[in-house]
Automatic annotation (TrEMBL):
Record note on cofactor: Probably binds two magnesium or manganese ions per subunit.
The species this protein was found in: Daphnia magna
PROSITE patterns noted in UniProt: AP_NUCLEASE_F1_4 (PS51435), ZF_GRF (PS51999)
EC nos: 3.1.-.-
UniProt keywords, alphabetically: DNA damage, DNA repair, Hydrolase, Magnesium, Metal-binding, Nucleus, Zinc, Zinc-finger
Catalytic activity: Exonucleolytic cleavage in the 3'- to 5'-direction to yield nucleoside 5'-phosphates
Protein name, per record: DNA-(apurinic or apyrimidinic site) endonuclease
Domain of life where this protein originates: Eukaryota
Lineage: Eukaryota, Metazoa, Ecdysozoa, Arthropoda, Crustacea
InterPro entries named among the record's database cross-references: AP_endonuc_1, Endo/exonu/phosph_ase_sf, Endo/exonuclease/phosphatase, Znf_GRF
PANTHER family noted in UniProt: AP ENDONUCLEASE, DNA-(APURINIC OR APYRIMIDINIC SITE) ENDONUCLEASE 2
First-level EC class: hydrolase
Similarity field: Belongs to the DNA repair enzymes AP/ExoA family.
Record flagged with keyword DNA damage: yes
Length: 465
């Protein structure tokens, strides 16, 4: 079977769904949609069942989804890591370590951002039937000194504890998604501080999660390609960094150690565009047993897609008018209206579309000609020749005056490295300079040794957005 991990917003999600027929399980992160935004074409893909987790904090944020082919329909599916969102019949259970390590408020916070979907599968293993948990996660983003770091580390800890409980019950486990940390120096294009790189709290956690650091999981890509360089999965799109493959590897498919014997391939699909991340695909030799009943969390059980509840769109449908004469479609004018207004209504064509406002101004009918002549004759009664001459003189004078007063924006500075016109960027990081603008080299980001990549030119702009 094949697993694929994909990240991207809703439009990218739709793009990936077109290729679902060639994959068994597809896990998407950062879908950025809420349940009311999910349409039927996306939720109900032929040949697949889908399972979503939506952010409860705000719209257009976070979110994950798992699509399973009918040949490997899960026996259970659960939303979240801590079991605070799913009903009892939808829970996979085994929360002892997680519930014993967090407060009720902390457990709700872990699940509130829509960062996890878990599916329970079964497959034949020699003479027995084995159970597999697929954990699709979108781990929080945070810098080492960011206020979100504490939440990120708590999410990591909960993930580890839940995996420990599942493994202790004899389950095989796959954790895949955007882990939001590059593991080794080889997984980063150019770290700022090489000496303290491995001391990052996020990397310390990942070390302990993987086998080489005493954990119970393997990084499927590095298991097969331990020394492969420039194997990145994420690039800064604002800096056009993908052009020079100046990125990081922060997206993983991690298998509990016993599954390593079944791993056949793991590839980074860098040729697939549409997001700042690219998909990662793993092929694992497992003989799945498909469930005959869909889990409660499946989108096919949603009221809006099961026929139990009508959507608002059903009440608002396009209505067509019967074909008739123009006189039948127009109401009779009020006899109390002034004669001039009735004349205007009679000589003006009925507007049938908003597009008429953007139509060509060329005269195409006798009726339009009559209308234009009426307006023109009214204007000419005020000596149009002298008026036009005075208007032309005044316009020329005012244009010259405005040109002297408003000289337009100054040309952008040129960068020191390539002598090319710079581009204006805005600081998005929280701090005293947030929303302040600066000039930077227009070229794509790249390694500092690459002379064709972006140079280090920097100049503050006086503007602040």
């Amino acid at each position: 079977m094949e697993f694929v991990r994909v990240i991207g917003a809703y439009i990218y999600l739709l793009h990936v769904i077109q290729y679902l027929h060639i994959l068994q399980i597809v896990c998407l992160q950062e879908t950025k949609i809420t349940r009311d935004m999910l349409d039927e074409a996306t939720a109900l893909v032929e040949g697949y069942s889908s399972y979503y987790s939506f952010s409860r904090k705000k719209s257009g944020y976070s979110g994950v989804a798992t699509y399973c082919k009918n040949s490997c329909t899960p026996f259970q599916a659960e939303e979240g890591l801590a079991g605070t969102l799913s009903s009892h019949e939808a829970k996979i259970d085994f929360y002892d370590s997680v519930h014993g390590s967090f407060t009720d408020e902390g457990l709700k916070a872990l699940d509130s951002e829509g960062r996890c979907v878990m599916t329970l599968h079964r497959f034949k293993e020699e003479e027995t039937v084995a159970s597999l948990i697929v954990i699709n996660v979108y781990c929080p983003h945070a810098g080492d000194n960011d206020e979100r770091l504490a939440y990120k580390l708590e999410f990591y800890r909960a993930l580890s504890l839940r995996c420990d409980d599942l493994l202790s019950q004899g389950y095989h486990v796959i954790v895949l998604g955007d882990i939001n940390v590059s593991h080794r120096l080889i997984d980063h294009c150019e770290p700022d501080d090489v000496t303290s790189f491995s001391k990052s709290p996020s990397r310390i956690w990942l070390d302990g999660f993987l086998v080489e650091g005493g954990g119970k999981f393997i990084d499927s890509f590095r298991y097969l390609y331990p020394t492969k360089e420039k194997a990145f999965t994420c690039w800064n799109t604002k800096m056009n960094a993908r052009v020079n493959n100046y990125g990081t590897r922060i997206d993983y498919i991690m298998l509990s150690s016993k599954l390593s014997q079944s791993l056949r391939e793991c590839i980074i699909m860098s040729e697939v565009y549409g997001s700042d991340h690219c998909p990662v695909k793993a092929s694992i030799a497992l003989n799945f047993i498909s469930s005959t009943q869909l889990p409660a969390l499946c989108t096919k059980n949603f009221k809006e897609f099961s026929g139990k509840q009508l959507k608002m769109s059903e009440f608002i449908c396009k209505r067509s008018l019967a074909v008739g004469s123009a006189d039948e479609l127009q109401s009779k004018p009020d006899v109390s209206e002034p004669k001039k207004m009735r004349l205007s209504q009679k000589t003006t064509k009925q507007q049938s579309s908003l597009l008429n406002f953007f139509a060509s101004t060329s005269v195409t009918s006798r009726e339009n000609v009559s209308s234009l002549q009426f307006v023109s004759s009214t204007t000419e009664s005020t000596n149009s020749f002298d008026c036009n001459k005075s208007l032309s003189t005044a316009t020329s004078s005012s244009v010259g005056l405005w040109k002297n007063l408003l000289k337009g924006p100054a040309p952008p500075p040129v960068c020191s490295g390539h002598k090319e016109a710079c581009v204006l960027r805005t600081v998005k990081k929280k701090g005293p300079n947030m929303n302040r603008q600066f000039w930077a080299c227009p070229r794509a980001a790249g390694h500092s040794s690459d002379l064709n990549a972006q140079c280090n030119f920097f100049l503050w702009s006086s503007a602040k957005r």
